[in-house]
Amino acid sequence: MGGFDYIPAQNERSIDAEAGLVWDATGGPFNNRIYLVYTDETVNENNDTEIYVRTSTDDGGTWTAPVRVNDDPLGPIRSQFLPYIVLDRTTGTVAVGFHDCRNDNGVPGPGGTNTIPNDDAEYYGTFSTDGGLTWAPNRRLSGGFSNATDSGNGVDYGDYVGLDAHAGKLYTVWADNANCDGTNPNGTLHAFDLYTNTLMLPGSITVNSAVSRKTHGAAGNFDIAMPLTGSSGVECRTTGGTNDYTLVVTFSGNVTVTGTPQAQVTSGTGCVGSDGVCTGNVTVSGAVVTVPLTNIANAQVINVRINGVNGAADAPAADFNIPMGILIGDTSANRIVNATDVSQTKSRVGQPVDTTNFRSDVNTSGTLNASDVAIVKDKVGTSLP
Q1: Is the pLDDT of residue 2 over 70?
Q2: Model confidence over 204-244: pLDDT tens digits?
Q3: Mean of the pLDDT values across residues 89-103?
Q4: For a tag site, which of 101, 120, 142, 326 has the least CB within 10 Å?
Q5: HSE value, Cβ hemisphere, 13 Å, CA-based, for 171
Q6: Mean pLDDT of the region 158-173
Q7: What would the pLDDT profile of 123-165 be if each residue is shown by its tens digit?
Q8: Where are the domains of the chain?
Q9: Is the Cβ–Cβ distance between 100 and 122 less than 8 Å?
Q10: CA geometry: angle at 291 spanning 289 and 295, to 5°?
Q11: What separation in angstroms does the CA of 287 have from each of 248, 275, 280, 330, 356?
Q12: pLDDT averaged over the chain?
């Protein structure tokens, strides 16, 4: 979208891409990520404008594909415009606010202020806790429809919006003539007044760690880290059968998980459950969420999403995505099974299983022996993307 695009909701001032940037310097899991928000039109001059966010992790050298922020249906011609983006530097949650005509279908009353569709706007907000990969269901923050033409000010909404986020709250202020609370001295659908509202963001809950955990007989439990950013961790072990694994996610505080299902595999082959039965259920103990996985195929990176994680009663629940690589026999964790893994496993045969060599105990028996070597040899040539 270029400058000076006239839409029904802003037909005097016009709109433009209204691009905005924020940079995450929180030191959290998305540190040094740049977020770019902007408006784009699906077809030139069709008035169907959308809000998108792209991100960069290399100082703007490359950017991700656009992610649509507004969640209204794609079919009707509806305008979203004047996006602003902010970062809650206490939590790393990023939030966007924007004007939105999704509910104006030209039916006065429930569908607008007049018989013209797509010229009445409301104000919406949303947020992302996974680095801009997904966005929470949009929430309407205004109390009714505003109409810029009825304001009579010659510049419509302008491009004047205030936004900030801190300590789990998005603070918004925008021009509004809906007079939803009866306090606008000029009445309804006349001169604009300033209205404000807050959107509760996920509080200080973040993922401290995610690991794939297996019990190696009498040697005990050993964990393989599954980082949220960068290349996925590589789980190289197997217990055969229904290919069960256990993902253990530790949050920064006590949580509840209220989603339905509580967790799911959103990409890759497998599901949340055990012994070949998919249930979608997790176990929660304080700050630790344990996700059982079953029917997990080899040589893939799956994404496990925990749905509806909440750390406080007054904060909205958020979803968390955990990538997990599975490559049986990759004892060196270099994303390919080759002679190096075979040689490494052979050299460890007979050693007691400990933190330095447990990856070679690929069958998790608690002993390093010829069976482990055989499994690694059988997987030579497999790899992860």
Answers
A1: no
A2: 678 999 999 999 999 999 999 999 989 999 999 999 999 99
A3: 94
A4: 142
A5: 6
A6: 90
A7: 999 999 999 999 999 999 999 999 999 999 989 998 888 899 9
A8: 5-200, 207-378
A9: yes
A10: 175
A11: 10, 26, 19, 30, 28
A12: 94
